[in-house]
Amino acid sequence: MSNLAEPINISSESEEEERIPLLSQELVNNEEKLENTLALISSVYHITDIRHSLFPIEYPDTSDDGIAYVFHVENWTDKKAVFNNIQYGLGKPGGAHSNIFCPFLGVQCKDDKKSCQGVKICKIATPEFKDVTHSTVDLNMDLSSRNSSFLTISSSHQIRLNTQEEYLAVINSKCCYNNYTCNGQPVIRYHKTNRSNVNQYFIGCSAYIFGTRHRYISGKPNVDKNLLKELLGNEGRISNVNGDKNCFTLIPSASQKQKCPIPHIIDGKVELLPLVKTGCNVIFHKYEPLDLESCPYIVMVVKNTHSHPPPPPHRTPNHLQQDLKSLIENSNDLLIDSTSRRLISGPLIKAVFGETVLADVHASMNNIDKLRNIIMREQKLLHPYGQAFIDDGHIMILCMFKLQAEHMSKFKYFMVDMSYKRVFGEINELEFNAYDENNNSVVTFCRIYSNGSNAKAYQYMFTAFFEVYEDLTREKPTFYYFNSENSEKKGWAAIIVDLDKGQAKGLSLALNSLYNSLSPEQHLLSVLKSCLIHFERNVRNSKYSDESKFLMRQLPKAKTKDEVDFLFDQLRLIDDENINDWITEYQTPWILASLNCNYSSMDYDVWMTTPFDTNVSECSHANINRERTRLRLKTAIFHSWNYNLGLYRRFYNNYQYNVPMSSKNKSGVKRKIDANKRKEKQKTTSLLKSQNKRQKGNVKGVKNDEFQQQIQELEIEERKEELERKKLDNQLKKLEIARKKKELREGQ
């Protein structure tokens, strides 16, 4: 190192003569010990621990006496990486000088001093986060801040958590009336849902007046209505529940999040607590020569001990960002239509980085939004302005790796749905999905490609799935109801499907071969739930009268078997054409049990805490379809494998390093807020469309008084319709009374 100053001599001449042989022998045995000689970095720092590095360091070690890092930057394309690659947040207090002499380097330098900004933790963070210190980071250790208790919460706790999230979502969204300027408060209201005079709750607005349109959020089955009513009536206060004491949320100090994503109960009140930034007195002091060509070394001094847990590796090193940019720029296929999803699943990742999954290259790449930002910047700079032949017969290709099977064993339920767009030709894709609450992501466990969709084909597919699952996990597939006689129940508790008769029959036969103590139909009664959205769609698209459709929609909501029987009786009285065919179909035991819990053998607790639709599967279809549709079979399989592998690698990094999979807030509260906004937007759009249809025939230049008159006429029509509905309700009540009287007379 020709440009480095000689080590400072702090010994007398006589002492030096005695130590020469010893020092020479020491240099022969270990040259690195020379770097431990006391060195003067500046007038402030006298460092004994000096370390050389050819690369930037993300988690530099530190000590109370200080450590000096000498970076050899002659081959670096970005000299700023000394600071930019550090995973600790750096900021004030600090300072800089443009011309200062460094005795160690022997040249004039510009220095830059920054302080560690700590991390962000919840206001009620666990003492493990408040009383911890560290001076070194082992990248192989578990940096997860996840509380293990959240992985094993009870169903009652889950319902309470859902209710708290629903409450926070409601109070943080406004009523849509008068362009969201309404000052009304959210309240629990009720409306009649069927002809048996049963009320269903919804979240409405306290300022509602007949004839106006205010907030309307339908009640959800996995939310405690009484608790929600208590929260809305008491400004978020809840009784008979212990307050939260410890939270394990930990995020980098550079994050823009201001609130903890987990709702907490503090002093009896539900709220989102603020994130608190921890303090830290570690300093990072960089000395960079004014002439790096003649002295290609940068010295960084790190001193003191960190008083917080290590932050997750959230920053992508500069050289990896440059490699990503080069990959996008030099790839003809990705040049125009590159997306983060295609980049993750593309074949160039392994060619450039030597890894199949970007998250294996660096944990920070687990955050897909970072990739999106890089790709968007590059695209803005670059552009400022068949199916392979398949023989006849039944084809079935099952794709599932061990990580998927092991992950699936931890879930209470899974969904099964067929996708018809991925592969060109006759091949369709059957997916097994669920929503992973821990990673806030849709997860796919298995994909089966097949050209069959009848009961026999589904039987083969489900049987193959159970066999492969057992081969991968070394455990036989088990369901909750298999262990009904044991005190400890385990296994899958529910399967959610979409009212496909062939699929249900194939599943029942596969389950019967797996566990033949029950009949095929008994298996379905114990485990099957049908998607209510598919049911609603079938009713809406049917050719029956509006009165019949209204009664049909009440089938899943009926509280007792008597109410269900009453609905079928009323449908027969309406006497629509072919109505008996519909009644016969939906009186099929497994269909009725999959729609109404009164006929199901499933535990009520399981019924209420598992999904009522297959929206997760539909979301999964949309995600994988971004990889393109109508693909050749081999290409579709490869893309799916790559996508699934990347997703599970990102799950692992999220757990191991606490690096989020996205910068977006995907907490339960935020998801419910977004869902409410989407519903309000859909209703507003629907209302505008209906108004446009009414106004389509009007002549241009309609006067304001004429428009107001039309509005009044519409309100009168709505009132008439309401009166007719009430009249029909009264008639039905009379029929019910007459029926009961008849039963009493017959009983006498």
From TrEMBL:
Keywords: Coiled coil. The keyword Coiled coil applies. Residues 663-704 are annotated as: Disordered. Residues 704-745 form a coiled coil. It comes from the Eukaryota. This is MULE transposase domain-containing protein. It comes from Rhizophagus irregularis.
